[in-house]
Design a protein that fits this description.
- By secondary structure, the chain is an alpha+beta fold.
- It is built from ten helices and eleven strands.
């Protein structure tokens, strides 16, 4: 019988180590099975909106965007039109930029001046009753600004922030320019002036920044609250809590018609943003606002259905 030569143990140890290393290298090189859960999560990433057969409003103009997709869709001629109380979103944005609040923080107390109290009795405007000398917190005044849409509070905040409404309006215009809102002109802090104009596409740029501010986002998502000294107040945006809507702001007047700047959740993570402007213009503010709310609901429901059909919404 053939006998094998004797091999030292240390040689066999080295050979074994080499064989083990080769096996591990081959194992690492093998294609790994894909994690199905991870793949599913990737399918939830923002995608483009299917722009076929979108239920756009029959009149006016509109724009929509899905956060994270980089896509903006518009409908109607994007020409500047009066935006009424959508103006107050920029008012709140400028105030919070200069006087930022943390979530849950009330901010400084601001004295109600005689002008704000007097303006509460002016007819033809949306206002809230306030008492001269009362000291309301910044957050309370922002709630009165954005929920019942009080014009006298918009002007009070403007005077507090910049010394005069005129100086504050200049800050609003600079903020609009910084956000790339090239077709927007602000001439007042409340939106009562028909010379304050914008487009749906421009308003989306503001909506995106507004919803990134946690305090502003929390306020515009509030359906109703009680403000000390003012009592219970309700949000004019009656779509809140339906169709995934979590904000933003209504605006209506005879020249502006009905307007709605809105934000709706898709899958709890991504936001669908939209602006619907100039609905039933030159009728009554109530008729215009009803039309804007109805057109927006139809648009939101249609878009969310399309996102579900493409797997973007779970």
């Amino acid at each position: 019988m053939l006998s094998l030569p004797s091999v030292p143990r240390r040689v066999w140890t080295a050979v074994g180590a080499l064989l083990l290393l080769a096996a591990l290298t081959a194992l690492v090189a093998l294609p790994r099975p894909q994690n199905r859960d991870a793949s599913a999560r990737q399918g939830n990433a923002p995608t483009e909106i299917d722009d076929s057969d979108i239920p756009w409003p029959r009149e006016g103009q509109a724009a929509v965007a899905l956060e994270g997709s980089g896509q903006v869709l518009t409908h109607g001629v994007q020409r500047p039109v009066p935006i009424a109380s959508l103006t107050k979103v920029m008012t709140a944005y400028v105030v919070l930029t200069g006087h930022p609040l943390r979530p849950g923080e009330e901010g400084p107390r601001i004295e109600v001046d005689r002008q704000a109290a007097y303006e509460a009795g002016v007819g033809g405007e949306s206002t809230v009753v306030v008492t001269p000398g009362d000291r309301r917190t910044e957050r309370e005044l922002l709630q009165l600004l954005l929920l019942p849409s009080a014009n006298n509070i918009a002007r009070l905040l403007a005077r507090w922030d910049a010394g005069s409404e005129e100086a504050f309006v200049r800050k609003m215009q600079r903020a609009a320019q910084d956000l790339g809102m090239r077709d927007t002109t602000y001439t007042d802090a409340s939106g009562i002036a028909s010379a304050t104009t914008s487009t749906a596409a421009d308003q989306l740029k503001l909506a995106r920044e507004a919803m990134r501010n946690p305090v502003l986002r929390d306020i515009v998502a509030t359906r109703e609250t009680t403000v000390p000294g003012a009592g219970p107040v309700a949000n004019t945006n009656t779509l809140l809590g339906t169709s995934g809507v979590v904000g933003l702001k209504t605006g209506s007047s005879t020249p502006a018609g009905g307007n709605l700047l809105w934000a709706a959740e898709t899958d709890g993570t991504h936001l669908l943003l939209g602006a619907v402007l100039h609905q039933r213009a030159n009728t009554t503010p109530a008729e215009g606002l009803t039309a804007a709310l109805e057109a927006s609901r139809t648009l939101i429901d249609g878009l969310r259905a399309r996102l579900r059909s493409t797997g973007s919404e779970r």
